[in-house]
Amino acid sequence: MTAGIRLLKWHHVHSAALGVTFALLAFVTLDTLTVTRYHKVAKSLLRRSEFNFDDAALEGHPRVRDEHLQQLQNIKLLVWVMTQPDNHQTKAVHVRDTWGKRVDKLLFMSTKEDASIPTIKLNTNESRTFLWAKFKRAFKYVHQHYINDYDWFIRADDDTYLVVENLRYMLSLYDPEFPIHFGQRYTSSNPEGYMTGGAGFVISRAALRKFVEEALPDPQKCRASDIGEDDDVEVGRCLTNVGVVAGDSRDELGRGRFFYQPPADQLSYALQGNKSWEWPHSFYPPKLGPDWLSSTAISFHHLRPDQIDEMDYLLYHVRPFGVELEQPFPPVLPPDIRTVPMQVIEKFGTWT
């Protein structure tokens, strides 16, 4: 091999090495600048956000403030979670550390005081037989201490997941001074049916007043005995007896937003159609397939602790690159205008 050929090869190798080095330096420099720039932009956006999420979630999801978001944040939510001593450290903590951070007030109702959660001790027995007693005492406690401080009051289980932003969104056109309640509506002997407790039971301030002040003291309107497993069925009957409206929580396409089962199970039931156990219990005609589940879903029930953490991760941290969420959000109003109180229509106008 001649010296000229060896020199030429060395020149090519040297040039290639320089090129790779330059490319690496450029990539690192640009990447560093991109990350630095992103953090500056993200921090500027976060400073303008009125949402009080944890730092980790904010780093993953910087939010731009707008007028509608400000209005939604002004809706004051109190959630009380039904739990029990065996579940304090295995279930309740997962609710507390995920979606529970996004409500204005979070209470845990139990039969044992636990400062580490913390929980509120209710004077009743811990068994399914006394679920009705536990429910009544919990709402009496909330009424006594918080009736004037919050707009909406929600009962959830320690294995429920709530998408709090979607709940605020659904409630944004409703007046909390009108007696109304929402949830996943099932049929019962009560003509208005009832809202399943585990899927999340939402009651307005006016409805809470009527429940505690009018229904509970009257044995003709509400069961006086503490014995009862079906607390959600009982409260549905009580509220109907004092004129509280059973609201339609479905979205603009008639799809459900509160669910008694985890997402995978609900999708499975939707595909099973009338073979599903849930089909005959649904107050509204169920829809086949994914059309049963709204894109603005609010709650899912019967989740394991790891599934609650998984839901939080998928909703608030995972971001598909290049995918932008549809804006504006789907209409807030339920499809049945008859479930919207007249005073709300007069206050906000009519919708098409």
Automatic annotation (TrEMBL):
<keyword id="KW-0547">Nucleotide-binding</keyword>
<feature type="transmembrane region" description="Helical">
    <location>
        <begin position="16"/>
        <end position="38"/>
    </location>
</feature>
<keyword id="KW-0472">Membrane</keyword>
<comment type="function">
    <text>Glycosyltransferase that generates the core 1 O-glycan Gal-beta1-3GalNAc-alpha1-Ser/Thr (T antigen), which is a precursor for many extended O-glycans in glycoproteins.</text>
</comment>
<dbReference type="GO" id="GO:0000166">
    <property type="term" value="F:nucleotide binding"/>
</dbReference>
<dbReference type="GO" id="GO:0016263">
    <property type="term" value="F:glycoprotein-N-acetylgalactosamine 3-beta-galactosyltransferase activity"/>
</dbReference>
<keyword id="KW-0808">Transferase</keyword>
<keyword id="KW-0479">Metal-binding</keyword>
<keyword id="KW-0812">Transmembrane</keyword>
<feature type="domain" description="Fringe-like glycosyltransferase">
    <location>
        <begin position="74"/>
        <end position="243"/>
    </location>
</feature>
<keyword id="KW-1015">Disulfide bond</keyword>
<dbReference type="InterPro" id="IPR003378">
    <property type="entry name" value="Fringe-like_glycosylTrfase"/>
</dbReference>
<dbReference type="InterPro" id="IPR026050">
    <property type="entry name" value="C1GALT1/C1GALT1_chp1"/>
</dbReference>
<comment type="similarity">
    <text>Belongs to the glycosyltransferase 31 family. Beta3-Gal-T subfamily.</text>
</comment>
<keyword id="KW-0464">Manganese</keyword>
<keyword id="KW-1133">Transmembrane helix</keyword>
<dbReference type="Pfam" id="PF02434">
    <property type="entry name" value="Fringe"/>
</dbReference>
<dbReference type="GO" id="GO:0030145">
    <property type="term" value="F:manganese ion binding"/>
</dbReference>
<keyword id="KW-0325">Glycoprotein</keyword>
<keyword id="KW-0735">Signal-anchor</keyword>
<comment type="subunit">
    <text>Homodimer; disulfide-linked.</text>
</comment>
<comment type="pathway">
    <text>Protein modification; protein glycosylation.</text>
</comment>
<dbReference type="GO" id="GO:0016020">
    <property type="term" value="C:membrane"/>
</dbReference>
<protein>
    <recommendedName>
        <fullName>Glycoprotein-N-acetylgalactosamine 3-beta-galactosyltransferase 1</fullName>
        <ecNumber>2.4.1.122</ecNumber>
    </recommendedName>
</protein>
<keyword id="KW-0328">Glycosyltransferase</keyword>
